[in-house]
């Protein structure tokens, strides 16, 4: 069986066409399948529409959150409910093309444990504000994570269920599932897929989340070597303090070298030391808070989401 999981947040206008396309593709593939939509507390009637569609489509399962918990939590809930040997994740805004799913599944059947989509011709109309920053982010993530992928942010991915069943997902960690599988000895492939500009609504994700994504990746590397969101707060402030401290230190040295101003006559060295110490402390606090949060969830078998209703599950 193939389980297709898709998060939903204010996609009422896109859902009818998306579900229709998805059903057609899965039926053409043959074999058993299920569709699992996870509504992340939409405010535009998306859940009501999904409920109505599920009444006429038994293969469509629906999970509704009580509050907005984010894309990672939505995918985690869908993956936890999936019964298939293969799990496919896809966005419900029609930017991902369901017609690419058979190619991803075909690669899994060749022995890969995860296949990640690589969106083609994306942000060609916004080279400086979106395309270049996106490439820089993917380059940094590839270097830190050790798995070179062109498009970590693409939701269209396919996995062997046994490889993702035990992966804990918090924060923005859903995009790092292929890296996590790779670190555990799995085989990961990347496949070029179509990218389609959305017809309705606006993108819910911006470049502003880049720093949180990189911090999450650093956290996973730390946890997997010996183990959600606190790092986003402490880490963000800590990084800012480190940057300010470094800048103050460079400035004070420049004043000494080029202007022959004694370091004891300027507060910059003290400020540099202060901000550097505070920055390191905040980063350490962020990691410790993250470990405590992970212990809280896993020792008590809690989840980072709260389900209000299930349909056909």
From TrEMBL:
CDD domains per record: DPM1_like_bac
Keyword Membrane attached: yes
Cellular compartments per GO CC: plasma membrane
Domain Glycosyltransferase 2-like, first and last residues per copy: 3-162
Gene Ontology MF terms: glycosyltransferase activity
Keyword Membrane: yes
Gene3D superfamilies tied to this protein: Spore Coat Polysaccharide Biosynthesis Protein SpsA, Chain A
InterPro entries, alphabetized: Glyco_trans_2-like (IPR001173), Glycosyltransferase_2 (IPR050256), Nucleotide-diphossugar_trans (IPR029044)
Keywords noted in UniProt: Cell membrane, Glycosyltransferase, Lipopolysaccharide biosynthesis, Membrane, Transferase, Transmembrane, Transmembrane helix
SUPFAM superfamilies registered for this protein in UniProt: Nucleotide-diphospho-sugar transferases (SSF53448)
Transmembrane segments: 231-258, 270-292
Gene Ontology BP term (one): lipopolysaccharide biosynthetic process
PANTHER family in alphabetical order: UNDECAPRENYL-PHOSPHATE 4-DEOXY-4-FORMAMIDO-L-ARABINOSE TRANSFERASE (PTHR48090:SF3), UNDECAPRENYL-PHOSPHATE 4-DEOXY-4-FORMAMIDO-L-ARABINOSE TRANSFERASE-RELATED (PTHR48090)
Protein name from the UniProt record: Glycosyl transferase
Originating species: Candidatus Sungbacteria bacterium RIFCSPHIGHO2_02_FULL_52_23
